[in-house]
Task: structure prediction
Amino acid sequence: MTAENRLSINQWSMRTTPCEQFIGAVAAAGIESVGLWRQNVAEIGTQRAARLVQDAGLRVSSLCRGGFLTAATPAGRRAALDDNRRAIDEAHQLGAGVLVMVVGGLERGWSISRVRDTIPQTIAELAPYAEDAGVRLALEPMHPMFAADRAVISTLADALRLAEASGHRSVGVVVDTYHVWWDPQVLDAIAMIGSADRLLSYQVSDWNLPLAPDPLLSRGVMGDGYIDFSELTTAVAATGYSGDIEAEIFNADLWAMPITESLAWVRSRYESVVRPHLVVRPHL
Amino acid sequence: MTAENRLSINQWSMRTTPCEQFIGAVAAAGIESVGLWRQNVAEIGTQRAARLVQDAGLRVSSLCRGGFLTAATPAGRRAALDDNRRAIDEAHQLGAGVLVMVVGGLERGWSISRVRDTIPQTIAELAPYAEDAGVRLALEPMHPMFAADRAVISTLADALRLAEASGHRSVGVVVDTYHVWWDPQVLDAIAMIGSADRLLSYQVSDWNLPLAPDPLLSRGVMGDGYIDFSELTTAVAATGYSGDIEAEIFNADLWAMPITESLAWVRSRYESVVRPHLVVRPHL
Result:
């Protein structure tokens, strides 16, 4: 992919807009790519959504989300695997080459380190199915404040370790600025993920304060918070990553606006805060 | 220190109890150590607090807290250094061998990696003063959800790196379960900090869900949340750490109880959830 216009709008950045209108508004704004969510696609059905994005000439940078693979019981685990196969089918139908994997959390009494170590084998069970569908599974390290309830993977280096341990070259990693910006090893980890050809998605949003009562909703529009997009974006660009840059921003202010305004706000900040750092400067 | 009775009660675990009553209640409960807070000590003055803990025969496992060294202006930085020298004086007067350092956060527009790299030099300015007072400065990595507003140090490995970069052997690290439990490198980092003779404090509380509206108050009593105290405590014990184990729990339920009940609750959980793992098992 060598698109000049690499901004992608994640559907949950505009989640108050129904699926069909979302696709239409993004295309009308001259944006070329979207990140879709399964439950929002389900409003109109996968086939219809696939047709709409195709007719609009949009790329689908990712489908959110598979995962939640840490069920306590064998039955729960089988159900999770089945659901992930459906997610892979949907990604294939939608033309999304990447399925974002939020791997799941803990039951009380479990050891996080032991749960983490179950991830590679579970991912290995899904990877051949995903490969047959032309879909790459992208492990998403989430901010450590979600380690107990959403994702036992908290750093990029650990996501890379677990992806490699799956034994499948197709399995990769999502770099989401909100989740990883604080990590003292973040720049090295991005370089290593790039070298391993496993950098599958770059998602951007800012870290706003104070935290929202639901911390999932503390994401800010780039430039409104504390993240240095220069360092992170430069590191991503230096790996040779040429995919879309997906704005994934769960933010009540954004959701309260008409979509034309929220798209304009996000695009303007992408252009001023993120895009300038996508240029790879030659070493002198 | 080879005390059998190594539980210490951090003053903010009982913060609704005034300083003098806190010291009295801890001693009356047969607990031998306290972690004090500067602002609570200030209620009665350092001299009087020092006399009370001495008369009660208590150890002072730490004084909270110095730090906030990342001011934007030279004047702000000088004021912070002055305040930290006063904190060192107070630690000395109270007989606390350890001053906990919460190093400070970011202004918007700053790069977290550049701010982190200012820490060793600032700590190096304080360390000789602390050494003269017989006080060790203990860098506290905080949970990454506080990286922007409280502490740019988010992992134990990074705290060790910065302590070593200060050039002072007296500078060390706090291991607080709430802040570090999620870290995939936590066990290796504890071992390295122990090998470097820089493990200065072990603080315990649990990770409860849902997060409290103020995430500082989400700490739970050990056994109520998601942290595996077996792994972490075994790793701390394996370093040879022989200091106190400080229960530092900011929790509204605990604060609403009479102090005799809250002390009994914390001690009972320390005995059942933490203490059994302090025994170092010989390698077979």
Remarks:
- Chain A has one domain: 7-278.
- Residues 7-278 of chain A form a domain with the TIM Barrel fold (CATH 3.20.20.150).
- Chain A touches chain B through 33 residues (CB under 8 Å).
- The radius of gyration of chain A is 18 Å.
